[in-house]
């Protein structure tokens, strides 16, 4: 006689386990661990909001108010809308300063990128000892405080005891005997260009050199075998590969030069005859000399807008090129 068999209960179906991922159990500490990176960057974010975002928002508010010495003391600034911006945009002096700022930025950035590229290429071809020596010098220049470097340039270009005038006179240029660099607008502009370029080249050159070391040597060998000259190798091999890096360094240098203030203020205070007054210096002079804090804030906000528009266009072009290449 056959014995009836009881059917086995159906097995519970479980979700498939993902490879390399252990099931999460109650009390698993990975949840708090995920918050740890955010806790680490929270002080930096808070500091950025406090030191950067709040002053910018405060300046934006003041630019829409009547805010002068009286309002600074007693408070109660009145809202006047776009009157400060209308006053600025109608002034010929403002547009002259804008044109001078663009010329200042263009001259400096072109010189910085040209000299930095040449220095980076030279570092790539130097021997180990010379390369280390040159990189050490660049690092020392980069580490020099801005005010200290500016003071050194004051000594170098001093009219009577300056090294520059002494050297030029020794070479036979007698017209530079006792020449006052700080009394001539064009000469003062040139001195500031030399100072800013000297301070900016180390960062750009070392950054570009780091990018050059990532290019495979086989590409250079193939280009030389095909008969490519040094210029052709740079334009056909080096620059296309490092185009995003060049765009990034150029953007950073535009920011550095456009907002440059300490060097100009310490050496010339925007003079002589406003020959070295750029937008940041112009905003400070209006607020400090005229006590027009509202108008100075408007200049500062327009400076931010101009700089943002220029950088956004450059960064969008860089991202578009990266997308086309990928």
Automatic annotation (TrEMBL):
Gene3D superfamilies the UniProt entry points to: MetI-like
UniProt membrane topology term: Multi-pass membrane protein
Localization (cell): Cell membrane
InterPro entries cross-referenced by the UniProt entry: MetI-like, MetI-like_sf, UgpAE/MalFG_permease
One GO CC annotation: plasma membrane
Domain of life, source organism: Bacteria
Keywords from the UniProt entry: Cell membrane, Membrane, Transmembrane, Transmembrane helix, Transport
Broad class of where this protein is predominantly found: membrane
Originating species: Planobispora rosea
Region (Disordered): 1-29
Domain ABC transmembrane type-1: from-to ranges: 98-316
Extent of the signal sequence: none
Taxon lineage: Bacteria, Bacillati, Actinomycetota, Actinomycetes, Streptosporangiales
Protein name per Swiss-Prot or TrEMBL: Sugar ABC transporter permease
Pfam families: BPD_transp_1 (PF00528)
Transmembrane segments annotated in the record for this chain: 35-57, 102-124, 136-157, 187-212, 233-258, 295-315
Annotated GO biological process: transmembrane transport
Family membership: Belongs to the binding-protein-dependent transport system permease family.
């Amino acid at each position: 006689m056959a014995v009836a068999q009881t059917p086995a209960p159906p097995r519970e179906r479980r979700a498939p386990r993902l490879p390399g991922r252990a099931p999460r159990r109650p009390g698993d500490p990975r949840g708090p661990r995920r918050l740890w990176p955010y806790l680490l960057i929270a002080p930096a974010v808070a500091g950025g909001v406090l030191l950067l975002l709040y002053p910018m928002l405060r300046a934006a508010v003041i630019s829409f108010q009547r805010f002068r010495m009286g309002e600074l003391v007693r408070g109660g600034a009145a809202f006047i809308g776009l009157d400060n911006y209308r006053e600025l945009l109608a002034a010929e002096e403002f547009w002259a300063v804008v044109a001078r700022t663009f010329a200042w930025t263009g001259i400096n950035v072109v010189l910085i990128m040209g000299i930095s590229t040449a220095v980076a290429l030279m570092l790539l071809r130097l021997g180990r000892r010379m390369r280390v020596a040159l990189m050490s010098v660049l690092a020392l220049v980069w580490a020099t405080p801005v005010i200290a470097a500016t003071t050194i340039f004051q000594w170098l270009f001093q009219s009577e005891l300056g090294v520059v005038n002494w050297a030029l006179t020794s070479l036979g240029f007698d017209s530079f005997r006792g020449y006052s660099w700080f009394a001539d607008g064009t000469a003062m502009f040139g001195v500031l260009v030399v100072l800013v370029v000297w301070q900016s080249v180390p960062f750009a050159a070392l950054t570009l050199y780091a990018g050059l070391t990532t290019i495979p040597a086989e590409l250079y060998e193939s280009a030389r075998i095909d008969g490519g000259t040094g210029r052709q190798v740079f334009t056909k091999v080096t620059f296309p590969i490092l185009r995003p890096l060049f765009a990034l360094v150029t953007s950073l240098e535009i920011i550095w030069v456009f907002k440059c203030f300490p060097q100009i203020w310490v050496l010339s205070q925007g003079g002589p005859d406003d020959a070295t007054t750029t937008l940041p210096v112009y905003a400070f002079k209006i607020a400090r000399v005229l006590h027009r804090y509202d108008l100075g804030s408007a200049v500062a906000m327009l400076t931010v807008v101009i700089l943002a528009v220029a950088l956004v266009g450059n960064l969008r072009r860089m991202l578009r090129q990266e997308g086309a290449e990928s």
